[in-house]
Hints:
213 residues; mainly alpha; Tetracycline Repressor, domain 2; 9 helices; 68% helix; 0% strand; elongated
Amino acid sequence: MTKRLIEKPQPSPPAPRTEAATAILDVAEQLAQTRGYNGFSYANIAAELGLTKASLHYHFPSKAELGRALIVRYHAVFGAALDAIDQQAAKPPEKLRQYVGLYDDVMRDDRMCLCGMLAAEYATLPAPMQEELKLFFSMNERWLTTVLLDGRRSGSFLFKESANERARVLLGALEGAMLIARSYGDPRRFHAAAERLLADLGIGRKCRQSRAV
């Protein structure tokens, strides 16, 4: 019997943007990372950039379209950061340290992971944004699963459950740790949680910071 191949969902490619559209996305991303999707409006972006709301609607006719574009762009940037880690870090433990560093860099700017922030508002988001969020988190789970499998094969990591299960635990714990740390205004809470997650895999050395996303 021929096995049916199931293709993994592919993220939407970022559309080419004008300089003005990029500036709008930059401001909207900063607002979404600090206030959430429901915490800002086109009026906030217009005031920040000195534009009219009509100008914003020209580039992004609706806030839902703007929100989806934000996730698509963030997905692409984060994916490129993961590719860079694969190229620069040879061993699985170092890859995980640099992965944690991606989150650490965001927190240092007093922001949250964009998709983690939006996930807290998932029920109120437009359906296209919800789908893009799933694609982002699935990308992270697949990458983490691969790193964990490589680490277990090489003897670098110790865990009993499947690599995919542990990947889901890691991703959920890191995103949650960011939210809690932000609530207290104390990044050390995130660092402590990340250290424990790595220690549970048998990694004794501290996480090393990486590139910002």
